[in-house]
């Protein structure tokens, strides 16, 4: 009638992070390359054009690194004081940077000396950017002003004095040459239009704004400041779309993934968080050694570069995917076999019948189906039969999936044949079983099943104890394990008693007679009894 | 309308199908099985019940085909009668009164006028095989007292008797010996196996026996799983036997195939084994039949086998060991833990079924709808194994959710507990596992209830356990950006002074939860989970707890183990009334305020129906059952009844079903359930039940067209003749089996009369001769024919000598439809 029902393998919820597409994607990077800079890395910017070099601003220097080089391929060091915000032009041929002394300098990538110097700011210029038409530069400075410069004749075109505190971040629209955005420590983000003399939009972030970012379409604006990352809908006149509070220190930098589907934020709490831009939920998070000041993603997310306060630049390259194909391929039936009938078009009256899915049984299930109980147990205890020459220390199956082994032991017990399956083993075989017990006996989820199995083993092999030093040693280890566990449980029980007492005193103070157990105390209790 | 009749307890369906071997009809179209006081006739193809043969007054214990007429069936019963049936029409032909309890029935083609039955005469446990001579007489009831003794001191079960090799001998087994009685020599040989004195042969007991149809060979099954094939048993000394051993547990039944080339055996392993050529090597298996094989039978045509199983199921198996049909009754193999429930969607009765399954059983059609596999594990049927038991189940949210609890307890300390929550999937029309919770409690779960309030926004489930806690589980949204998912999580854990929680119950609107902790009832607010108040009556542990409904929703009822029924008022928080009643079952009616309580006394069980607002019961019925009633349930009626009498009004909108300890399902009704069970199969008679195969479409149509053409030509040529097929009297006459009709002389005049044309019709209507309008003419013709038939009926009735006014009333027509019933009286008159 009904087919064989495979053994139900007990599944346990995987603690910690779930494996999702995002974790797989963002974990698929090589170990980071660390480059030591002279000071805190305040800005990293990728050239938009191949070969995707990146400019790193740290202290009074700007280094340009190639994609895989660990040494700078070029250095701009003509700064009297700290340089800020080295940014590539869209064509990747010009670079602009601000500096502590209020100057804005424009460099040619191939040259060394600045092409242009824009003088006009009285205090440090922390943000500069090219506008979309490539011929203007926007700069924001600590003198509360935002200036627009013309590159060909290095003249100041416009000055906006609307901010009431340091202007520390800004960016120009990628689509409209006249639009740009600045964020300031006066808690506002303002959008300026070069065609008018004042800001066209102002949103209140609530904290000093550290970083702003415009989506490529220009419809959404992201601002970071304090612990918040806020997303504003520009098309609705600057309406707050969502406010994210996932960092516990100031968020310093923002970055979009190349697909535009993910938003990355770096913070002083040493974390980079990845958000989905559809649901604004954190989908992944990176940890770094120091507080993060700057963050950049290369074309196609090939490289993540993170600059930190301790001057270390961390560069992560994506793993190449070509490796997987190099596995030795087994000889397969000819291509013709597979395409046979593939190009047959379905006629009008034809009824498509799919081939019934073949139910695949695991090897241990096949053994159990035929009542080969000892073999089934062997099968889940070790896989060394087919890879004997490896003689590795532990079989892979039991290490990785003890729950399968435990489920089979449980199933054998349910069938009432566990003792038969465990009996009649030689020294090597019994030591496999004992190894497994030693490794997993103390796990609360497996304990009830394994204790039963251990008892049966002791009952069976008691008469022959002392004949094999290997097995005897294993038994002693097992004994030690059990003793340790008992001590541990006793300690836990004591702790629980103390906690109960504390709860009791707290309740009396409240003066209520609520008698239910709090849900906090309960898992503790469960653990102990198990 | 039925008010005057008394309400009585009636058995409703769910009777055993596996009590005796099933019997195939000669053409393998039907299969017969005994079922309580009835014999059921099933179609082997459609699995449909075609007839229920009722007539016996007690348990039917044996059925056999009449060897002289394979369209007839003998049955014997504990009421001391042997009845002969026409199974195609479902008619009782004859009754032979033997007078003592008959335990089994055998027929032999060689012994034409006698059958063999097992009777016990002197002592209660000594059984004899006797042959009963069936006197030839034309009357309906015949005394058959002529018994001749064949074998003494035999086993009661018919499995232990087998007639062999065209009735030359009969073999019987009991305990450790096999006795063979030879009819011709009239001698008995007896072969004894070594018995329990030494351990090796401890389980040598015979369990069943079968005889080879053509050779002198007897197969016997044994307790230890061996099958012995006995040969040369004509000689007490020279006999030999060979052993076949595959079964590891006792052999439950054996059967030879019709030709004798293979032997079938089955047992607790639920594997049908076919031994080819009686050798150990050649064997075929049909595994996983679901439950212990109790009986095996083979169709006389040899193309089908069938196995009866302990879970009340008959599987029909093809010659090539492929199961082709399953006839499944209400599974009553094991104890019922879950109690009786009603699936809110299908209105089916839900209870434990096969091991690890929930069965959905339709009360209307006495048929299992389907099995839901809860435990989803390979079922190993072995003696002494502790199985995982499905202990609790509950439906919630109008059938959208199902919660089940399974447990397995090997030792006191080792408890495996699992709770599963199933969601109803509209697309697949079935339940799909949603959440599995391991060890939801530290100890057995005693009660399980959903909050079934209409407006509850979040499905809520409460479990009460012996570990002293009750837990509230809620459905939470577990979806993230990758997938949508919902699952159940624990929301609240409550306890009361570490007492064991024994019952839980939600009020009708879902605002209050009552949990009983041994003797104390606690009331909790279902929104804040605050303890509102407690009730304690100091009258023993609370056994049942339920809230009143509708107008009585302010009352809470509790029944204690010391036999006190308490009713508390939730508004005044005081005891409203109490009564001394040892309540076993307490069930609220979902459609009214009524609550049914069944109390248990030393004499039997009594039913009390009451409203919580009044301590006086609405209805009392004493002695509803001798034994303990275990479970009860109200089933909403599809069509409300209209009892006007006050005492029966509680049955108007719901029907009360209950299950006794021996697992008979009973209900209260004014009519017998068999009358209500109108099998849709009355029309499924032999010639009508031909399936519409593609061949039918081709050939049948063709034939019809031919017929029509023929008719047309006839119509054109001849004077209008009524078609014989369309005259009910004639068709009845032709379709009634010959052996139940009165003599031809009696029928002749009537038959001829029916063929005659009455004059009035001719004069009344002109024969239309328009050839162009054939279709119209045909329809007119048919009208005319109807008129004819009516007239003809009249004439036939006058032919019977009854004075009838010449009117064409419907009742007359009906009377004629019941033609078969009338003709019995003729037989008596003759």
TrEMBL record, chain A:
WD repeats: 118-159, 244-285
Keyword Nucleus appears in the UniProt entry: yes
Listed name of the protein: U3 small nucleolar RNA-associated protein 15 homolog
Compartments (UniProt record): Nucleus, Nucleolus
Protein task: Ribosome biogenesis factor. Involved in nucleolar processing of pre-18S ribosomal RNA. Required for optimal pre-ribosomal RNA transcription by RNA polymerase I. Part of the small subunit (SSU) processome, first precursor of the small eukaryotic ribosomal subunit. During the assembly of the SSU processome in the nucleolus, many ribosome biogenesis factors, an RNA chaperone and ribosomal proteins associate with the nascent pre-rRNA and work in concert to generate RNA folding, modifications, rearrangements and cleavage as well as targeted degradation of pre-ribosomal RNA by the RNA exosome.
Species name: Pan troglodytes
Keyword rRNA processing among record annotations: yes
Subunit structure: Part of the small subunit (SSU) processome, composed of more than 70 proteins and the RNA chaperone small nucleolar RNA (snoRNA) U3. May be a component of the proposed t-UTP subcomplex of the ribosomal small subunit (SSU) processome containing at least UTP4, WDR43, HEATR1, UTP15, WDR75. Interacts directly with UTP4 and WDR43.
Domain U3 small nucleolar RNA-associated protein 15 C-terminal: 343-502
GO CC aspect terms: endoplasmic reticulum; fibrillar center; small-subunit processome
Any one biological process term the GO annotation gives: rRNA processing
Gene this chain is encoded by: UTP15
Keyword terms: Nucleus, Repeat, rRNA processing, WD repeat
From TrEMBL, chain B:
Compositionally biased intervals (Acidic residues): 769-786
SMART domains tied to this protein: WD40 (SM00320)
Cell location: Nucleus, Nucleolus
Subcellular location, principal: nucleus
GO molecular function, one term: RNA binding
Region described as Disordered: 763-807
SUPFAM superfamilies: Quinoprotein alcohol dehydrogenase-like
Designated gene of the protein: WDR75
Subunit structure: Component of the proposed t-UTP subcomplex of the ribosomal small subunit (SSU) processome. SSU processome is composed of more than 70 proteins and the RNA chaperone small nucleolar RNA (snoRNA) U3.
Function (record text): Ribosome biogenesis factor. Part of the small subunit (SSU) processome, first precursor of the small eukaryotic ribosomal subunit. During the assembly of the SSU processome in the nucleolus, many ribosome biogenesis factors, an RNA chaperone and ribosomal proteins associate with the nascent pre-rRNA and work in concert to generate RNA folding, modifications, rearrangements and cleavage as well as targeted degradation of pre-ribosomal RNA by the RNA exosome. Involved in nucleolar processing of pre-18S ribosomal RNA. Required for optimal pre-ribosomal RNA transcription by RNA polymerase I.
Swiss-Prot/TrEMBL WD repeat ranges: 53-95
Organism, as annotated: Pan troglodytes (Chimpanzee)
Record-given protein name: WD repeat-containing protein 75
Domain WD repeat-containing protein 75 second beta-propeller: 340-663
GO cellular component: small-subunit processome
Biological-process GO terms, alphabetical: positive regulation of rRNA processing; positive regulation of transcription by RNA polymerase I; ribosomal small subunit biogenesis; rRNA processing
Pfam families (alphabetical): Beta-prop_WDR75_1st, Beta-prop_WDR75_2nd
InterPro entries xref list: Beta-prop_WDR75_2nd (IPR057644), Quinoprotein_ADH-like_sf (IPR011047), WD40/YVTN_repeat-like_dom_sf (IPR015943), WD40_rpt (IPR001680), WDR75 (IPR053826)
Keyword vocabulary terms for this entry: Isopeptide bond, Nucleus, Phosphoprotein, Repeat, Ribosome biogenesis, rRNA processing, Transcription, Transcription regulation, Ubl conjugation, WD repeat
């Amino acid at each position: 009638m009904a087919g064989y029902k495979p053994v139900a393998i007990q599944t346990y919820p995987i603690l910690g992070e779930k494996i999702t597409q995002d974790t797989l994607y963002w974990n698929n990077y090589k170990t980071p390359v660390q480059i030591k800079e002279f000071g805190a890395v305040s800005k990293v910017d990728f050239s938009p054009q191949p070969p995707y070099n990146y400019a790193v601003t740290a202290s009074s220097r700007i280094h340009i690194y190639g994609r895989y080089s660990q040494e700078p391929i070029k250095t701009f060091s003509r700064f009297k004081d700290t340089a800020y915000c080295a940014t590539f032009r869209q064509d990747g041929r010009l670079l602009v940077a601000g500096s502590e002394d209020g100057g804005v300098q424009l460099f040619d990538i191939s040259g060394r000396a600045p092409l242009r110097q824009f003088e006009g700011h009285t205090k440090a210029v922390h943000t500069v950017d090219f506008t979309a038409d490539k011929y203007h530069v926007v700069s924001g400075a600590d003198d509360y002003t935002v200036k627009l410069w013309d590159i060909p004749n290095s003249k100041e075109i416009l000055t906006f004095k609307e901010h009431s505190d340091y202007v520390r971040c800004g960016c120009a629209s990628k689509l409209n040459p006249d639009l740009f955005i600045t964020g300031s420590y006066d808690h506002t983000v303002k959008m300026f239009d070069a065609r008018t003399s004042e800001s066209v939009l102002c949103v209140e972030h609530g904290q000093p704004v550290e970083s702003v970012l415009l989506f490529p379409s220009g419809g959404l604006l992201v601002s970071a400041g304090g612990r918040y990352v806020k997303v504003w809908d520009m098309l609705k006149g600057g309406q707050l779309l969502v406010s994210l509070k996932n960092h516990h220190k100031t968020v310093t930098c923002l970055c979009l993934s190349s697909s535009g589907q993910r938003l990355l934020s770096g913070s002083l709490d040493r974390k980079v968080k990845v958000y989905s831009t559809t649901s604004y939920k954190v989908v992944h998070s990176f940890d770094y050694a120091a507080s993060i000041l700057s963050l950049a993603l290369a074309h196609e997310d090939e490289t993540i570069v993170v600059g930190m306060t301790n001057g270390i630049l961390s560069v992560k390259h994506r793993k190449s995917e070509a490796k997987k194909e190099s596995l030795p391929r087994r000889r397969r039936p000819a291509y013709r076999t597979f395409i046979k009938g593939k190009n047959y078009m379905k006629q009008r009256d034809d009824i498509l019948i799919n081939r019934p899915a073949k139910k695949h049984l695991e090897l241990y299930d096949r053994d159990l189906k035929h009542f080969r109980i000892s073999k089934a147990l062997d099968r889940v205890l070790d896989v060394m039969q087919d890879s004997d020459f490896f003689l590795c220390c532990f079989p892979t199956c039991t290490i990785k999936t003890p729950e399968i082994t435990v489920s089979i032991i449980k199933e054998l017990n349910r069938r009432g044949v566990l003792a038969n399956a465990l009996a009649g083993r030689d020294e090597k075989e019994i030591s496999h079983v004992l190894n497994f017990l030693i490794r997993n006996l103390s796990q609360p989820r497996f304990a009830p099943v394994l204790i039963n199995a251990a008892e049966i083993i002791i009952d069976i092999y008691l008469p022959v104890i002392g004949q094999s030093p290997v097995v005897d040693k294993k038994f002693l280890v097992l004994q030690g394990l059990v003793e340790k566990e008992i001590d541990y449980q006793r300690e836990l029980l004591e702790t629980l008693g103390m906690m109960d007492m504390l709860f009791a005193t707290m309740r009396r103070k409240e003066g209520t007679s609520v008698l239910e157990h709090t849900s906090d105390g309960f898992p503790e209790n469960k653990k102990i009894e198990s | 309308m039925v008010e005057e009749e008394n309400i009585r307890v009636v058995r409703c369906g769910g009777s055993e199908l596996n009590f005796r071997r099933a019997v195939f009809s000669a053409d393998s179209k039907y299969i017969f099985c005994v079922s309580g006081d009835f014999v059921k006739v099933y179609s082997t193809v459609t699995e449909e019940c075609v007839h229920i043969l009722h007539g016996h007054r007690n348990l039917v214990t044996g059925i056999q085909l009449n060897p002289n007429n394979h369209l007839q069936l003998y049955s014997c019963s504990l009421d001391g009668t042997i009845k002969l049936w026409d199974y195609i029409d479902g008619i009782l032909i004859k009754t032979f009164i033997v007078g003592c309890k008959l335990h089994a029935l055998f027929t032999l083609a060689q012994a034409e006028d006698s059958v063999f039955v097992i009777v016990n005469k002197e002592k209660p446990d000594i059984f004899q095989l006797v042959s009963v001579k069936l006197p030839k007489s034309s009357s309906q009831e015949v005394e058959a007292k002529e018994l001749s003794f064949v074998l003494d001191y035999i086993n009661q079960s018919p499995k232990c008797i087998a007639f062999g090799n065209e009735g030359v001998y009969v073999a019987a087994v009991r305990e450790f010996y096999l006795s063979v009685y030879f009819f011709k020599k009239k001698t008995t040989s007896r072969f004894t196996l070594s018995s329990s004195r030494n351990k090796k042969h401890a389980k040598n007991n015979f369990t069943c026996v079968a005889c080879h149809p053509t050779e002198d060979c007897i197969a016997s099954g044994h307790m230890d799983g061996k099958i012995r094939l006995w040969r040369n048993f004509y000689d007490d000394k020279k006999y030999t036997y060979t052993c076949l051993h595959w079964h590891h547990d006792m052999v439950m039944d054996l059967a030879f195939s019709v030709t004798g080339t293979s032997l079938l055996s089955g047992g607790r392993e639920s594997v049908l084994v076919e031994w080819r050529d009686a050798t150990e090597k050649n064997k075929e298996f049909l595994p996983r039949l679901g439950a212990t094989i109790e009986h095996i039978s083979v169709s006389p045509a040899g193309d089908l086998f069938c196995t009866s199983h302990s879970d009340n199921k008959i599987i029909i198996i093809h010659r090539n060991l492929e199961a082709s049909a399953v006839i499944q009754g209400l599974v009553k193999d094991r104890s019922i833990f879950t109690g009786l429930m009603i699936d809110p969607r299908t209105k089916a009765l839900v209870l434990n079924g096969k091991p690890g399954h929930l069965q959905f059983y339709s009360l209307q059609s006495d048929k299992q709808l389907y099995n839901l596999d809860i435990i989803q594990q390979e079922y190993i049927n072995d003696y002494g194994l502790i199985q995982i038991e499905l202990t609790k189940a509950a439906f919630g949210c109008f059938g959208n959710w199902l919660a089940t609890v399974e447990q397995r307890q090997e030792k006191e300390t080792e408890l495996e507990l699992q709770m599963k929550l199933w969601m109803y999937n509209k697309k697949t029309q079935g339940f799909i596992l949603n959440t599995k919770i391991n060890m939801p409690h530290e100890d057995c779960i005693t009660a399980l209830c959903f909050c079934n309030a209409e407006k509850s926004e979040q499905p809520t489930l409460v479990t009460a356990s012996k570990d002293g806690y009750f837990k509230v589980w809620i459905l939470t949204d577990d979806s993230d950006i990758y997938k949508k998912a919902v699952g159940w999580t624990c929301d609240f854990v409550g306890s009361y002074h570490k007492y064991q929680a024994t019952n839980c119950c939600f009020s009708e609107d879902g605002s209050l939860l009552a949990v009983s902790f041994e003797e104390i009832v606690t009331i909790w607010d279902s929104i804040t989970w605050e303890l509102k108040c407690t009730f304690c009556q100091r009258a023993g542990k609370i056994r049942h707890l339920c809230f009143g409904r509708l107008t009585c929703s302010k009352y809470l009822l509790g029944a204690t183990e010391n036999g006190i029924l308490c009713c508390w008022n939730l508004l005044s928080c005081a005891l409203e009334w109490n009564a001394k009643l040892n309540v076993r079952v307490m069930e609220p009616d979902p459609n009214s305020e009524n609550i049914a309580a069944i109390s248990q006394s030393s004499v039997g069980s009594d039913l009390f129906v009451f409203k919580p607002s009044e301590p006086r019961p609405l209805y009392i019925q004493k002695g509803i059952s001798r034994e303990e009633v275990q479970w009860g349930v109200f089933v909403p009626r599809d069509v409300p009844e209209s009892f006007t009498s006050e005492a029966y009004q509680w049955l108007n909108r719901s029907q009360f079903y209950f299950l006794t300890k021996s697992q008979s399902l009973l209900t209260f009704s004014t009519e017998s359930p068999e009358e209500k069970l109108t099998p849709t199969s009355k029309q499924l008679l032999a010639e009508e039940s031909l399936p519409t195969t593609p061949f039918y479409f081709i050939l049948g149509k063709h034939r019809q067209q031919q017929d029509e053409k023929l008719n047309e030509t006839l119509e054109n040529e001849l004077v209008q003749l009524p078609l014989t097929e369309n005259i009910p009297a004639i068709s009845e006459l032709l379709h009634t089996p010959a052996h139940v009709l009165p003599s031809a002389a009696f029928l002749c005049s009537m038959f001829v009369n029916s063929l005659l044309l009455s004059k009035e019709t001719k004069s009344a209507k002109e024969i239309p001769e328009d050839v162009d309008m054939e279709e119209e003419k045909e329809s007119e013709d048919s009208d005319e024919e109807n008129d004819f038939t009516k007239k003809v009926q009249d004439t036939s009735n006058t032919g019977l000598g009854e004075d009838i006014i010449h009117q064409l009333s419907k009742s007359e027509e009906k009377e004629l439809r019941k033609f078969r019933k009338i003709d019995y009286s003729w037989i008596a008159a003759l």
